[in-house]
């Protein structure tokens, strides 16, 4: 139970954040929140020794047993690594936010509630072994990230960025859900572990390819792969702590996690290998190329994140080749290791760089790189951290990014050696694209750090006089920068402890235990390798292009905005907005009669059509009770009372007619031996009539002016159709019993399961309890909305009095 509970601890803690924020004003709320991810990081760290030995931990909490839905926490090498990133980086982000967000100016209770909600969602994603609960947490990440990105909701850019991210990621999530459902139909289970065991048999199913494509759409949209990356740069409008957390270590890595987790199922498919590797390498090039165009520090980091995510994705695609044998296992088996190793490295150097971008913005008042420069002597600590992170991102020693980048180049070179799936021909493009993209990676890394901290200092362009950030704000990026350097010198400790258990989870058919993975990381292999020569070329050409950047950077202005993906997205959204508005105006006329016409005609057409198309209409008068004379009299009274209610010119007469209808129905209940229903009907009818009289007493009398309504054929047809529909359904339902009636179930279980003797009361209170709950909920929401509107009106009145 505790293992599942760990997932929900941040969400439970979020309940208390608003109370802490309002009651303890002198202490920054972040100090209380910091204890949550820090404690969880320590708890998950306790799993490291056993998971490194190959153990897994499984715990299940039933959620909706009738639908076979449970919250299943599964901790293996892959989920533990992500859990440590979520809580570890989360702790540093919360610490950073304490000094970044002013407790007097910011609505910290909102910020930390959203952040903790997101933390629970991410933990749920990476630990879920159940497809449906994984999807639930997946969409919860989209909702909570929408709230975080739009935290400064008074800014148009923040709202639009949040909306774009949610539209794209939620849309991809819906596609992914379709893939999950197809997997369930193929395997008959929601368990990912069980589906992995069935993988060799699933590939023969015709639904396999559809499931593969739909799940990849979910992964690609969440991890900002081409062409879905457009939401990530716009999401930079979020506060920097959000960017450092969501867009370097967690949310964008959810798509990476999904591909890694499902690789054992889909790696047997040629389509999976080509899509994952191809989209990844294209995203790597696209992101690195356009990162050099950006002038906003966070914009540069956004496109660099797109680029690095593409690198990791391409490595995961390459790792799937190892499932096919034919000599591929030994040649490409390190690709999964390189993907996970770079994932860790990226979280360290990119997290520190996002925080430095926030520091520069915080201390100078701008992120525009055209206004910055010469800050190295003013902000030496920030420069040092930025240099370490940028050089690691560029793939230079002695930083951890160099090691994983070399393994990446090796994997791309190895792809062209395989004769199956066409890699011996088209595979030659992968190392070329990887090399060119790495050159641009080198350029934007140098562009970020040296254009910001070196060059000419122009204080007149800066909104604030710059100075070094307070030490509290520097602690988190300095810790991450220290990890960047440390990992370079102890890569095999990191590999044995964190990477190999994750690799074993990705490639369970190749390794029985993490100890079976015989991969050794080294900065120098004792010989000149092709990847080392590629790195030398990257450094030389990248440096020359960086120096000459002012001469060729203008080529980006040649790209017409009309052909960009962002413009395409804007056009689609605008077209949908305009088009759907036009469609809405065709039927949203404001007339209740029109709306009733649409609804009744649709219902009648569907029901009557279904009855005849399915041959479901039958009329039989067998076993029916005879109609007695007094029943005919009661029906006549019903018709007369209904007619009086409609045609009466006096409200009092209409109420009397309506009451007659209600009391007549109560008499029918008495005749049919339903005294409880009769009593209920009599009570309700009496109260209703009394309330109507009380309400109508205060209304003006009905006008004497008569309005003659002309006959309309369409309304007559719809009215007749609805009457025919109800009659046909009633006759058909009475004439055939395809399945036992629900009343039989109530009769059999009202006492044994519900513990009541009055069947009507039990149905209303127990069997229909959710109906009552939802009705109360609707009333409560309406009441809160009315209260909020009243308060807003009162506040406006108070402000207007103050202005006067």
Automatic annotation (TrEMBL):
Alphabetic keyword roster: Antiport, Cell membrane, Hydrogen ion transport, Ion transport, Membrane, Sodium, Sodium transport, Transmembrane, Transmembrane helix, Transport
InterPro entries: CPA3_Na-H_Antiporter_A, MrpA/MnhA1/PhaAB, MrpA_C/MbhD, MrpA_C/MbhE, ND/Mrp_TM, Proton_antipo_N
Membrane topology, from the record: Multi-pass membrane protein
Keyword Transport attached: yes
Domain called NADH:quinone oxidoreductase/Mrp antiporter transmembrane: residue spans: 128-421
Transmembrane segments: 6-24, 31-49, 69-99, 111-128, 134-153, 165-187, 207-232, 244-266, 272-292, 299-322, 334-360, 372-396, 428-450, 471-490, 532-549, 595-612, 632-648, 655-672, 678-699, 711-733, 772-790
Tree of life domain: Bacteria
All residue ranges annotated as the MrpA C-terminal/MbhE domain in the record: 716-791
UniProt key word Transmembrane: yes
The MrpA C-terminal/MbhD domain, residue ranges: 636-701
Chain ranges of the NADH-Ubiquinone oxidoreductase (complex I) chain 5 N-terminal domain: 64-112
Localisation per UniProt entry: Cell membrane; Membrane
Chief localisation class: membrane
Family: Belongs to the CPA3 antiporters (TC 2.A.63) subunit A family.
The protein's name in its UniProt record: Na+/H+ antiporter subunit A
Organism: Lysinibacillus xylanilyticus
């Amino acid at each position: 139970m505790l293992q599942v509970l760990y997932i929900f601890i941040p969400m439970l803690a979020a309940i208390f954040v608003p109370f802490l924020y309002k009651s303890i004003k002198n202490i920054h709320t972040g100090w209380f929140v910091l204890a949550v991810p820090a404690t969880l990081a320590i708890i998950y760290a306790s799993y490291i020794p056993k998971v490194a030995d190959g153990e897994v931990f499984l715990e299940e909490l039933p959620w909706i047993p009738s639908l076979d839905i449970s919250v299943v926490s599964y901790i293996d090498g892959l989920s533990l690594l992500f859990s440590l990133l979520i809580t570890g980086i989360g702790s540093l982000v919360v610490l950073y936010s304490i000094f970044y967000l002013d407790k007097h100016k910011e609505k910290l209770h909102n910020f930390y509630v959203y952040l903790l909600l997101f933390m629970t969602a991410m933990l749920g994603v990476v630990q879920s072994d159940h497809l449906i609960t994984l999807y639930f947490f997946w969409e919860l990440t989209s909702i909570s990230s929408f709230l975080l990105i739009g935290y400064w909701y008074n800014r148009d850019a923040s709202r639009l960025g949040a909306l774009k991210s949610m539209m794209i990621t939620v849309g991809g999530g819906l596609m992914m859900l379709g893939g999950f459902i197809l997997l369930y139909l193929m395997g008959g289970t929601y368990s990912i572990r069980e589906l992995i065991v069935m993988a060799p048999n699933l590939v023969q199913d015709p639904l396999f390819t559809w499931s593969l494509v739909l799940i990849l759409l979910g992964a690609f949209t969440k991890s900002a792969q081409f062409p879905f990356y457009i939401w990530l740069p716009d999401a930079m409008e979020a506060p920097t702590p959000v960017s450092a957390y969501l867009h370097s270590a967690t949310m964008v890595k959810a798509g990476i996690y999904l591909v890694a987790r499902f690789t054992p199922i889909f790696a047997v498919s040629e389509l999976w290998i080509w899509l994952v590797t191809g989209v990844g390498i294209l995203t790597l090039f696209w992101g690195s190329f356009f990162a050099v165009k950006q002038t906003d520090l966070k914009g540069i980091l956004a496109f660099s994140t797109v680029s690095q995510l593409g690198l990791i994705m391409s490595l995961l695609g390459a790792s799937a080749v190892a499932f096919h044998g034919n000599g591929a296992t030994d040649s490409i088996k390190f690709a999964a290791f390189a993907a996970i190793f770079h994932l860790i490295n990226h979280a360290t150097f990119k997290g520190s760089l996002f925080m430095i971008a926030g520091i520069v913005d915080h201390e100078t008042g701008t992120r525009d790189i055209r206004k910055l420069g010469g800050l190295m002597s003013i902000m030496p600590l920030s420069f040092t951290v930025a240099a370490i992170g940028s050089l690691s991102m560029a793939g230079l020693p002695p930083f951890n990014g160099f090691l994983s980048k070399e393994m990446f180049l090796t994997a791309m070179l190895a792809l062209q050696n395989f004769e199956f799936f066409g890699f011996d021909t088209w595979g030659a493009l992968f190392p070329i694209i990887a090399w060119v993209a790495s050159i641009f990676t080198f350029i934007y890394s140098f562009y970020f750090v040296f254009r910001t901290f070196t060059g000419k200092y122009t204080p007149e362009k800066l909104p604030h006089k710059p100075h070094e950030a307070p030490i509290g704000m520097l602690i988190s990026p300095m810790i991450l920068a220290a990890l960047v350097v440390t990992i370079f010198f102890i890569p095999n400790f990191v590999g044995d402890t964190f990477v190999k258990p994750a690799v074993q989870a990705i490639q369970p058919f190749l390794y029985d235990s993490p100890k079976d993975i015989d991969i050794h990381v080294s900065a120098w292999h004792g010989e000149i390798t092709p990847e080392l020569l590629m790195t030398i070329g990257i450094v030389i050409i990248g440096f020359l292009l960086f120096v000459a950047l002012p001469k060729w950077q203008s080529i980006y202005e040649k790209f017409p905005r009309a052909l960009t993906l962002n413009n395409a997205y804007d056009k689609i959204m605008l077209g949908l907005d305009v088009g759907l508005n036009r469609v809405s105006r065709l039927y949203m006329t404001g007339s209740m009669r029109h709306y009733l016409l649409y609804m009744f005609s649709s219902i009648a057409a569907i029901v009557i059509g279904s009855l005849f198309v399915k041959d479901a209409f039958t009329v039989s008068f067998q076993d029916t009770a005879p109609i007695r004379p007094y029943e005919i009299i009661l029906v006549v009274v019903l018709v007369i009372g209904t007619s009086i209610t409609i045609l009466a010119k006096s409200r009092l007469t209409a109420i009397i007619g309506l009451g007659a209808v209600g009391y007549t129905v109560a008499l029918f209940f008495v005749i049919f031996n339903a005294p409880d229903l009769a009593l209920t009907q009599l009570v309700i009818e009496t109260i209703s009539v009394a309330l109507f009289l009380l309400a109508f007493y205060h209304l003006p009398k009905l006008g004497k002016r008569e309005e003659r309504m002309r006959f309309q054929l369409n309304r007559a047809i719809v009215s007749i159709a609805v009457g025919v529909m109800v009659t046909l359904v009633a006759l058909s339902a009475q004439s055939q019993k395809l399945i036992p009636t629900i009343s039989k179930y109530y009769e059999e279980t009202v006492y044994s399961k519900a513990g009541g003797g009055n069947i009507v009361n039990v149905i209303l209170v127990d069997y229909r309890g959710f109906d009552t709950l939802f009705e109360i909920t609707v009333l409560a929401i309406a009441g809160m909305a009315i209260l909020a509107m009243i308060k807003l009106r009162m506040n406006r009145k108070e402000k207007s009095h103050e202005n006067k």
